[in-house]
Write a structure and sequence with these properties.
This protein is of the alpha+beta class and 119 residues long. The chain folds into two domains: 57 residues, no CATH class; 38 residues, no CATH class. The protein is built from three helices and six strands. The strands form two sheets. Strands 1-3-2 form a three-stranded antiparallel sheet, with no helix packed on it. The longest helix has 14 residues. It is extended, with a radius of gyration of 20 Å. The two termini are 31 Å apart. The structure holds flavin-adenine dinucleotide.
Length: 119
């Protein structure tokens, strides 16, 4: 859609010791991640990577082509809500209201949402 190749590549991932092999294998089983064991080393053949600056460029261009307006350098300073609904977001670029909201504030999500809400 954007024409920008994000360089998605199923490269696999080699996990080298030291690590807790039992826990690692349990995690792979629980998350349905294929793994092979070679002595002390784990090999996860289906793990993939992307070139994240290119992925973001592709995402941005695709969104702009869909008519999405991107507001940059705007900090969300407050979430105004009733008991079960977010009414609006207060930001340094004014306020915004929408049907749905996606929290993508990474490590700051908990601070943004407040201690009473799950990130
Ligand atoms: C040094 C380092 C190296 C890493 N290397 C790798 C690697 O090689 N491979 C890998 O897969 N991962 C790597 N990671 C981890 C990777 O960077 C994170 O997992 C990823 O960036 C998380 O993405 P995110 O979108 O959830 O959050 P982030 O990328 O942290 O994005 C959150 C955004 O929200 C913004 N924000 C926060 N609060 C507000 C607010 N109130 N209003 C508006 N915006 C707000 C922040 O400014 C930020 O831009 C590395 C991390 C670090 C620190």
């Amino acid at each position: 859609m954007s024409g920008i190749d994000p360089e998605y590549w199923v490269s696999g991932m080699r996990v080298m010791p030291p690590f807790d092999a039992e826990r690692a294998m349990q995690w792979c089983t629980e998350h349905n991640v294929r793994l092979e064991r070679d002595g002390e080393v784990l090999w996860l053949p289906d793990v993939a990577q992307v070139r994240n600056p290119r992925l973001i460029q592709a995402l941005r261009l695709a969104l702009e082509r869909m008519g999405v307006r991107i507001v940059e350098r705007a900090e969300v300073t407050g979430i105004v809500s009733t008991e079960d609904r977010v009414e609006r977001l207060d930001t340094t670029a004014g306020f915004f209201a929408a049907e749905r909201y996606v929290v993508a504030a990474g490590a700051w999500s908990k601070k943004l949402l407040g201690s009473g809400r799950a990130a």
